[in-house]
Design a protein that fits this description.
By secondary structure, the protein is of the alpha+beta class. 35% of the residues lie in helices and 15% in strands. The chain is built from 9 helices and 6 strands. The longest helix is centred in the N-terminal third of the chain and has 11 residues, at 54-64. It is globular and about 55 Å long. The two termini are 16 Å apart. The structure holds uridine-5'-diphosphate and magnesium ion.
């Protein structure tokens, strides 16, 4: 018997200690293998917000099975963008990039799950929309590199840096999948 009665037999499952941080070894309650917790920064850029694509982006990440642990809409401060794109500051397109990124609000999110950094990059597609495969976010919604809808961190180390840049630790929510563990809904 699973379900609600089974919950009582799983002490600590719902109230176990929570260790904040970008990577953490997660041991499943039953079966399966443990995995290193990974998080990434995803941001719907101003063109994505203006074209009403925020819901579609969220739906793709949820449908894939990733877990949303932080989200906010903001007008990106130039200080944050300068740090975020610090390695591109000498590129000829940098002024246009900052102008684009400040042309309206962005929706910044932190998603969690196994290999979420690599999977997110695959889901958003090639930087140059003209090269992005159909089925990817950029390949489905964008035709030009200068208006490519979405950002996702390109490495685990970059993700840790970007999450700290865009979010306070108090803005990240470490929640448990109680509704699935209850057995009332299928996983
Ligand atoms: N970008 C641009 N022109 C270029 C290259 C990049 O406007 O020739 C912009 C584009 O918005 C891209 C961002 O700069 O998403 C960051 O570039 P990066 O190479 O890091 O690509 P990404 O990681 O976003 O795929
Ligand atoms: Mg990049």
């Amino acid at each position: 018997m699973g379900g609600l009665l089974g919950r009582a037999a799983l002490p600590g499952l719902l109230s176990g200690p929570r260790v904040p941080g970008p990577r953490l070894l997660v041991r499943p309650s039953s079966g399966g293998s443990s995995w290193t917790r990974e998080r990434t920064l995803v941001a719907v850029k101003p063109d994505g917000v203006q074209r009403r694509l925020v819901g579609d982006v969220i739906q793709r990440f949820e449908r894939r099975g990733f877990k949303l642990v932080g989200m906010k809409m903001l007008q990106a401060p130039e200080r944050v963008l300068a740090e975020h794109y610090h390695d591109l500051q000498r590129k000829p397109f940098y002024p246009a990039l900052i102008s684009y990124m400040t042309s309206g609000p962005v929706v910044a999110m932190v998603w969690e799950g196994p290999n979420v950094v690599g999977s997110s990059r695959a889901m958003i597609g090639h930087t140059d929309s003209a090269e992005a495969a159909p089925g990817t976010i950029r390949g489905d919604f964008s035709i030009h590199i200068s208006r490519n809808i979405i950002h996702a961190s390109d490495s685990v180390e970059g993700a840790q840096r970007e999450i700290q840049l865009w979010f306070q630790s108090s803005e990240l929510v470490d929640w448990a999948d109680e509704v699935h563990q209850s057995g009332i809904y299928p996983p």
